[in-house]
């Protein structure tokens, strides 16, 4: 009888130890999927996985993103034979921030339009939910060495709840020409945003992306849109102080930055001119930008 009690106690201790060990060796991840093909919503599903880190962790999360979930209300937009060719990490893009560079192969290139946009952002939202990953660069094995996505961050699609609904917009952006950086050229691009994100904020976000990717940095990458509103065809654009840090270096640089923003925003049908504010104040005194609304040049 005593032996049986001792054996039972040892078995209980063993099961308790095993349970604790099992808990210690697992971790929880959040994976983003499309939840409604009509509304273009994205939602997270949580998984418990064996504890890992670095490249192994990124690859594990990616495998979940690329695989159809066992949930009839969610789906992965990626074709079944999309492959993970490589995963690397880079610091040089944005100082000390951690950027994961992901190269995909197989049928990834067959994704087009908003399906590709949703797929890319499912990757970004899932990987940036991990600690120490601040942005993602998605490349394709058909474009070796190319960085077609630039650096994508969760802030590019504002996530205000456990799900979001996104829309797609075609924008005309004015930015320095690689051949002649003192002149502006126009690039037509497709951008994604939540349904409640003002288009003015989307334009600023996309200009910052172009500035990061191009040969000429014409907008400080830390610039934030504090607020914006349109009144009588004038856009009142309130930006963070970071906006002035770059273009104050030279008069020509300042003019180029201002023209880029004004011309790009005035491509929107409801805007004819732009009035700039920095941290809620007009910036005439500190930056020499006219207080009066500026029309496109």
Topology summary:
Elements: H1 2-24, E1 26-36, E2 41-50, H2 54-66, E3 83-90, E4 99-105, H3 113-127, E5 135-140, E6 163-176, E7 184-194, H4 199-213, E8 225-231, E9 234-239, H5 242-247, H6 251-265, E10 273-278, E11 281-282, H7 284-287
Parallel strand pairs: 4-5, 9-10
Antiparallel strand pairs: 1-2, 2-6, 3-4, 6-7, 8-9, 10-11
Helix pairs in contact: 2-3, 4-6
Descriptive overview:
It contains seven helices and eleven strands. The protein is an alpha+beta fold. The chain folds into two domains: 24-156, no CATH class; 166-297, no CATH class. The strands form three sheets. A four-stranded antiparallel beta sheet has the order 1-2-6-7, sandwiched between helices. It has a four-stranded mixed beta sheet with strand order 8-9-10-11. It has a three-stranded mixed beta sheet with strand order 3-4-5, covered by helices on one side. β8 (225-231) and β9 (234-239) form a beta hairpin. α2 (54-66) runs antiparallel to α3 (113-127) and α4 (199-213) crosses α6. The protein is elongated.
